[in-house]
Specification:
The chain has about 300 residues and is an alpha/beta fold. The protein is built from ten helices and 13 strands. A hairpin with a 2-residue loop joins strand 8 and strand 9. Helix 1 packs across helix 4 and helix 2 crosses helix 3.
């Protein structure tokens, strides 16, 4: 039997929760995947999967075997990449998902440097802030802002973006600028609508160890940072946003004005996340390492 191919088939069935998905991922027939897994079960003398007409799930023996198989396959991958060289090995399709604002203002301008270093990678970029099931959706990694809520993912910090409170000059001219956090309750606002929780975020402030959480009356709530900023620039009200290079350009051009600058609004951590169960192939490792090292 081909032990290596059988282990690859076993891992693919576990990752895709079925023989059909595994066959598609490996570009072979269902019968081939089934035969390889059966050979492995016979070789080891265990049942690796519970099979029903609707579901394929790991047995206890299968779960224990998967952990060791993935380590072995990773070792084989690392050996091959080490012999070929990381840059040469980093080829093929890479699927990532990033927030729209990060993709437009941070990632896209830096991509020429990435492709100059890794010309063999074909990058597919999805733009969203929604939770993504990386394994089921065949996404290699995601970039997300805020605390890491899925502890099953490996998280590497890219940067911290300071948060600030802003408004358009036309709004300030008409309604004035708040002098204290509590005065925000008397203003119109553009709020952030969390794609994760579906809840509207409060305005948060801190100074000299004193924290203030202010519930604002919003005209609009947006689950995308670019749309939120655009609403703010249009004069719909106060809003809080990460201070990115794009926001800095709006401040310099006087399209936005910072308010309550003597109050700290905290920082937004930015992470790249990927599943530990997926063996980190050369193109994923190349992209993740490049993101971390580039300090975008």
């Amino acid at each position: 039997m081909d032990l290596f191919r059988s282990m690859l088939a076993f891992q693919a069935v576990a990752v895709h929760s079925g023989f059909t998905g595994a066959a598609h991922a490996l570009n072979v027939s269902n019968a081939t995947v089934t035969g390889l897994v059966q050979q492995l079960e016979g070789h080891w003398g265990v049942t690796l999967f519970h099979r029903t007409t609707r579901r394929v799930t790991l047995t206890n023996d299968g779960a224990a075997a998967l952990e060791r198989v993935e380590r072995l396959l990773q070792d084989v991958t690392d050996l091959g990449e080490g012999m070929r060289g990381a840059t040469r090995a980093a080829t093929g399709r890479l699927r990532v998902d990033v927030p729209a604002a990060f993709g437009r203002h941070i990632l896209a301008p830096a991509l020429p440097r990435f492709f100059a270093k890794f010309p063999g990678i074909q990058l597919e970029v999805g733009s969203s802030d929604r939770p993504v099931d990386l394994l089921r959706e065949s996404v290699d990694c995601v970039v997300r802002g805020g605390p890491v809520v899925d502890e099953t993912l490996v998280a590497r910090r890219l940067k911290n973006l300071p948060m600030i409170t802003c408004a358009a000059p036309a709004y300030i001219k008409k309604h004035g600028a708040p002098q204290t956090p509590d005065e925000c309750t008397h203003h119109k606002a553009v709020a952030f609508l969390s794609p994760l929780t579906g809840k509207v975020a409060t305005f948060d402030f801190e100074r000299n160890g004193v924290a203030r959480e202010v519930t604002v009356s919003h005209l609009a709530a947006c689950n995308d940072t670019d749309t939120l900023i655009a609403c703010g620039v249009a004069g719909l009200g106060l809003f809080q946003t990460p201070r990115s290079a794009y926001v800095n350009s709006l401040l310099r051009s006087k399209k936005l004005v910072r308010v309550l600058s003597d109050w700290d609004v905290g920082q937004l951590p930015i992470f790249v996340l990927y599943p530990p169960t997926r063996h980190l192939n050369a193109r994923v490792r190349a992209f993740v390492d490049w993101l971390v090292e580039s300090k975008l």
